[in-house]
Amino acid sequence: MRTGVDGFQGQRLNQLRMAQNLTLAELGEQVGRSSSTVSAWEKGTQLPEAESFDRLCHVFHVSRMWFLKPVPPVVQESQRPYFFRSQASVHKQARERSQLYLAWLQEMSDFFQDAMDWPEVNVPMLDADDCRLISDEEIEDIARECREAWKLGSAPIPNVIQVMENAGIICTRATLGHVKMDGVSHVSVLDGRPYVLIAEDKANAIRNRFDAAHELGHVVLHSKIPAAQYAKKELYDLLEGQAHRFASAFLMPPESFAQEVVWPTLDNLLSLKSRWKVSVASMIVRCRDLSLLTEQLELRLWKGRSARKWTKGEPGDDALAFEQPKLMMRGAHLLVDSGIFERTELVHQIGLPPATIEMLCNLRPGYLIVQPDAGDNVVPLKLKCNTGRAGRSKQADVLPFQK
């Protein structure tokens, strides 16, 4: 009978397998075990023996510590909802992967907070436990309250992600493998802090920016909504519409945006796109919300937009660079640059694959992979024998480079 590795956490194995979209059979083939054995490891009814344990570490590029570290119970809780945009059409695997990434982000954030202070959470949140009681007026008011709390005035917001991070929200961008997955947000009971993931699969920064404001809307409006209510399909459109309304009000405040819309034509709205950093489609909706156009004019704008073939992409979509989260990246750099951790030790302590840490912390690819120092591979030089030159030894001491 094989001896299993004591303390092995089957849920950690399940997390990694789901993140890499592997079936039980596929993973079993890579480690030389049956799918039923892998399933037993995940369920905790059987422990992998030392050889299989090492193979798992090799397959997933993780340290042994990762499989021995219990999953925090609060990361498993589901009392607070995860807000998935485009939930109705998103594949289950993409939702599970995004929720998993957020759970890992929370764990890394908690690890970082042992060594440094994050910005305090400063996010106005609506005290409502029933989304059906939230009015458009309340949404407009709390969007204005957010701008006031963060001293944004009424001008266009230069960088939405930076504003969110300054308010204590931990943000990340990740590839989820599904173009209809826009983002996910969650307020953690681990530290009472909002966490937001924006999908990298989107084609342009304008859309990504609105997605970030949309997830902020869920945090502000729906953090106290019970998970059971959010799970109701009949309320999904209402919740999404409210987050949309918040994003529009937050990005395009009525007192300033309305003044710049002299006449809502497609060309006029397009001329405002680079300043407000929102799509023409979003501006049409905002003009409707602010009663700046009639139903007939709105219909004409939508038809004109379709006739210009802007439904799959508008002019100027590629002119804006993607907004990048920087808080987790700065935290990782601080731990390394201050000498608290070497890069290899940081990876070991976190436990996740280096590429996953780099993605979630927005570190440059390869940052955590330590390359051999060039001085370690210097080709040795030897003096020729019988050079005929006096006073020269045939061997010389090599002075090491100072690292």
UniProtKB/TrEMBL annotation:
Domain HTH cro/C1-type residues, every copy: 13-67
PROSITE patterns, per the entry: HTH_CROC1
GO molecular function terms listed in the Swiss-Prot or TrEMBL record: DNA binding
Matching SUPFAM superfamilies: lambda repressor-like DNA-binding domains
Pfam families tied to this protein: HTH_31 (PF13560), Peptidase_M78 (PF06114)
SMART domains documented for this protein: HTH_XRE (SM00530)
Family the UniProt entry places it in: Belongs to the short-chain fatty acyl-CoA assimilation regulator (ScfR) family.
Protein name stated in the entry: HTH cro/C1-type domain-containing protein
